[in-house]
């Protein structure tokens, strides 16, 4: 996505967020994401769940970006804009494509697309296969650095009056 004003933020080894007009955080994005007129975002939670709706880049024909007041036509909670991906048609883009990608944090991705048209030319079909995996940070009990970093994290549950219910690690 090489459109001015669009920011892709890497949130983990296999997660990302799309932000328009500077409105994004780790779990919140006002950007409404669609694929072939089908919403991939949850309007009520203002979140784009990429892991629930993955699609291979090799099947994307084009993307449309709507910024500003025009995005309100897609719903009341669409606050920063719309990113609409349009996939390739099996009638105009036939054949087989395979893609393999690797990276850091044990990230790898394999995708394949096959599309064709029936003998009569009236029925088009396509198959997309997509697999992606990435390892996030993992605790190594033999690493002094990991032990120090983990010792700085504190989990605490507090009731409405401010009393501590439980605390990890306990003091």
- Count of individual helical segments: 1
pLDDT average, as an integer?
Answer: 77
**What are the low-pLDDT stretches, counting only 5+ consecutive residues below 50?**
none
Which secondary-structure class do the elements indicate? mainly beta
Strand content: 35-45%
Overview of the molecule:
The chain has 171 residues and is mainly beta. Helices cover 5% and strands 44% of the residues. It contains 1 helix and 13 strands, in the order E-E-E-E-E-E-E-E-E-E-E-H-E-E. The protein has one helix at 144-151, and strands spanning 6-10, 16-20, 31-35, 38-39, 41-42, 47-48, 60-67, 81-87, 95-103, 107-117, 124-133, 155-158, 164-168. The chain has a 4-stranded mixed sheet, with no helix packed on it. Strands 9-10-11 form a 3-stranded antiparallel sheet, with no helix packed on it. Strands 1-2 form a two-stranded antiparallel ribbon. The radius of gyration is 21 Å and the shape is extended. The termini are far apart. The model has no long low-confidence stretch (mean pLDDT 77).
Helix and strand topology:
Layout (H helix, E strand, L loop, with lengths): L5 E5 L5 E5 L10 E5 L2 E2 L1 E2 L4 E2 L11 E8 L13 E7 L7 E9 L3 E11 L6 E10 L10 H8 L3 E4 L5 E5 L3
Parallel strand pairs: 3-8
Antiparallel strand pairs: 1-2, 3-4, 5-6, 7-8, 9-10, 10-11, 12-13
Keywords:
171 residues, mainly beta, four-stranded mixed β-sheet
Short description:
The chain is mostly beta strands and 171 residues long. It has one helix at 144-151; strands at residues 6-10, 16-20, 31-35, 38-39, 41-42, 47-48, 60-67, 81-87, 95-103, 107-117, 124-133, 155-158, 164-168.
């Amino acid at each position: 996505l090489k459109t001015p004003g669009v920011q892709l933020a890497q949130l983990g080894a296999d997660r990302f967020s799309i932000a328009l007009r500077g409105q994004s955080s780790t779990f919140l994005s006002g950007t409404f994401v669609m694929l072939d007129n089908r919403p991939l975002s949850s309007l009520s939670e203002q979140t784009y769940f990429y892991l629930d709706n993955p699609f291979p880049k090799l099947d994307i024909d084009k993307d449309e970006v709507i910024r500003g007041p025009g995005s309100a036509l897609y719903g009341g909670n669409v606050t920063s804009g719309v990113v609409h991906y349009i996939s390739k048609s099996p009638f105009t883009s036939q054949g087989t494509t395979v893609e393999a990608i690797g990276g850091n944090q044990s990230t790898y991705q394999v995708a394949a697309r096959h599309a064709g048209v029936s003998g009569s030319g009236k029925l088009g079909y396509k198959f997309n296969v997509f697999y992606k995996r990435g390892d996030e940070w993992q605790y190594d009990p033999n690493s002094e650095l990991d032990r120090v970093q983990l010792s700085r994290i504190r989990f605490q549950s507090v009731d409405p009056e401010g009393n501590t219910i439980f605390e990890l690690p306990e003091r």
